[in-house]
Each structure stands twice: as structure tokens, then as C-alpha cells.
Amino acid sequence: RDISSETELCFPQLNTSCVKPKRPLSDTVLIYMILSFISLLTVALNLLVIISISHFKQLHTPTNSLILSLAVSDFFVGFLLFFQSMFIDGCWYIGDLMCVLYCCIDYITISSSVGNMILISTDRYVAICDPLHYSIRVTQKRVQVCVCLCWIWSLFYCIVFLKDNLKQPGQYNSCVGECVIIFNKSERVADVILIFILPITVIVVLYMRVFVVAVSQARAMRSHITTVTVQGSRKVTAKKSELKAARTLGVVVGVFIICFCPYYCVSLADQETLFNASSAAFVLCLFYFNSCLNPLIYASFYPWFRKCTKVIVTLQILKSGSSDTNIL
Question: Membrane topology per the record (predicted)?
Fold first, then answer.
């Protein structure tokens, strides 16, 4: 039997076209369905977070501004998964320039997610460890400036790392229909240090400090719960809400570390030997699935998110004055 007759090209009309890898149709359909489901769910859930925090005035707080920024980056990750589905049959159909732009947006969203995690951890650190000065140090304007700087840094990071690819898109492609971005060993190491090791170290150190202080505050509240005045009870309630926010965002950070660890550990190693089809799919799915999990965590821990979702889904948000709705 002639093997060449069974070969399927990405672009049959071109002799320089890449060859489609052979994969059972059932596997292709299953992977496509899973990716499409994760993508749609990620986009929909993060869009709910973005609309909720942007629309309802009660949610215009410094902490929620950071959650909003994280939701924006997660939304773009979900959107990029639509393009990731193109790789299922091993072909890239929309050109070399779109390949570089796709990778650039991917880098921007990932690095901004990491930056947002650092800002969230810092916010909780100040709120729990220095509550008396929190409202002075962490203002809405300062948070907005920090968020803008985070996204500017992400754009700068993308331009620096992809400058050669941006100058000449498709220079590493061996055939038409590939989307290849190559980094040397030193660039991969720098990427892992800047986007994973250093941020994770900062985040873990801050949250260890937050955890120690939160435990001591919880004990103090339990021991003095019977001797509080009305003003004191308000302070206790405020402290409880801060502790709950710290716990919720701590879960977000923990999930983030679990999802990002395998990807960056593998990127430091030899990809040729460690990446077979199944392990690559698992690592990448786990990496991208983090963006879908964040709003699910908010839904589990934050009653305001569930209330906002109900108002949005039932279209009550279209009523005049809906932005003043009491959802806390």
C-alpha cells in the first residue's frame, strides 16, 4: 500500500505544506470538545466577574479592582483557547503574523496573571498584618496605578522575549502551517525565574506571614467575643470579613501554584524527552484550566458573586439604578 497516498497536508495545494499528524478521529473530537468547553466556560465565568465588579458600585473596592484585573487576564486566556483548538490537527491556518500575535497575547495574559497574584497577596498582607493603616496605604487610585503598571510590564516583557519573532514572523517554521516560537535555554531559564520562581517566592512568603497573623487574630477574637461593645462587634465583623477574603484569595493563590508548577517545571527540562502527546496535553490543560477555576472559587466563597450572577442572568441588570443594588 502506498504510504504517500495516505499522507494529508495542511495545505494540499502547497508542496511546502506541513503534514498533518495521524490521530484517531475519536481522540480529535474528544480533545476539541474538552478544549471548547473549557474555553466557553472560562470566557463566560470571567465575563460575569468583570460585569459584576464593573457595574455594581458596592464592589468598587481596592481588593475587587485586583480581582477584576485578574478576571480580565483570565478572560483572554479563555479566548485564546479557541485558537489553541487549531493545534488539534497539527496545523496553523491563519498565518505567521497571527501566530506571533497569539503567542504575544498569551505571554501578556500569563505575566499579568502572575503580577495580579502578587498584588492580591500584597493587598491581603497589608489588610491582615497592618489593618489600621490599610485604608490609607491601599487606596483605589493606588491600586489602579499598580494594575496599569502590571499590564505595562507584561507588554514590555512580551516585546523583549518575542522581539526576534516580531521582527520576522515564521522564521523558525520548517513548513507552511506551523506556529513555532523558539527560545534558547538561557531565555527559558530567565522566563521561569521571572514569571514563576521569584513571584511564587514572594507570594508564599507574604501568605505565610498572613496565615500566622490571621490565626493569632482568630484566636484573639474567640477569646474576647463575649466582651465586645456595639463598636467592638463592628470591628470583629470587619476582621472576620478580612480573614474570609484572605482565605478565599489564599485558595486562589494555592490553585494558581498547583496549576502553574507542572508547566514551568517541564519548561526547564528537555522538552523532547519529557513531552509526549498525553503529558503535553495534561500539562497545558492544567495550565489553562487555572483561569476557569478562579471564578468558580469566587462563586463558592463569595455570596456577592452568586447574587450578581442572578441579577445579570435574569437581566435585572438592565433596569435603571441597578448599579446601586444592595448585593453585600
Answer: Multi-pass membrane protein
